[in-house]
Amino acid sequence: MRRRSNSVRTNIRLAQTTWGVLPRTALHSLRKITRVFGLSVALGDIQLIDGRWYVTHTGLLRMAQRRRCHGIRTSLQEHVSDPIAGRWVFKATVYKTPDSEGFVGFGDADPSNVSTLVRGAELRVAETRAVNRALRKAYGIGLCSVEELGWPSASPKPSDNHTGSSKSCASNGSKNGHPRLRDQLCLLIRKYELDPTLVKRYAADFCGTETLRDASRDLVEAFIFTLAEEAAKDRAALVCKLNSYNQLEEVKS
């Protein structure tokens, strides 16, 4: 009991350090998630995105190992897959014990529902999604997994340009006719709760242009890849880097 209480306190402390002050509902959910599933913020088992908790592939595998999962079998569903179109469908079966009938989950991926960062790896994404769904069924985890989240691929409607999220990222490639890059950047900003203004300053500095809208598509793609990598590896360090651009702006003014 004491060990669980320590885990809860540690998770809450790390979560508030990573994502700032959390609403009461998020804290309540985090306590339950920690006690029931033993997921760890420090080890990247869960992520907070748009105020909701999501489990990660790493977290699901660690939990399956702790509970001595007997095995996981995956198989490509060739009859519904389309290699030419880059669409793949996998079936995953999780066996909790040697005599278990298995818990089945399906996962699909194609260029329209994966991040540009993993474009070309749809087959592996589909298998990961299938495994995640099967593990969540096997161990009764109601949280959606991060890897199962789809990514927008269609261009936003004209009316979308008046929304708050579009305003904060309006210059992130949309002026060059790259709405997908802009959407990708907006998702990263929301996922890791970054300051949009500071991200744009960092992007302009990275691309060597006055504003992000002046950068080439290749440079914008490279920046998005770098930002995602830095955020996933060490969000706190990335936030410090972004804050430095705010300090530079204050010095200039």
Q: Name the helix and strand elements from N-terminus to C-terminus, one letter apiece.
A: HHEEHEEEHHHHHH
Mean pLDDT across all residues, rounded? 81
Beta content? 5-15%
* Overall tally of structural domains: 3
Shape: flat
Distance between the termini: 54 Å
Q: Can you describe this structure?
A:
The structure is a single chain. With 253 residues, this protein is mainly alpha-helical. It folds into 3 domains: 2-54; 65-148, Double Stranded RNA Binding Domain, CATH 3.30.160; 158-252, no CATH class. Helices cover 49% and strands 11% of the residues. It has 9 helices and 5 strands. It has helices at 2-19, 24-37, 57-66, 122-138, 164-168, 179-191, 196-207, 217-233, 235-252, and strands at residues 46-49, 52-55, 71-76, 88-95, 103-109. Strands 3-4-5 form a 3-stranded antiparallel sheet. Strands 1-2 form a two-stranded antiparallel sheet. Helix 1 packs across helix 2. It is flat and about 65 Å long. The model is unreliable at 152-179 (pLDDT under 50).
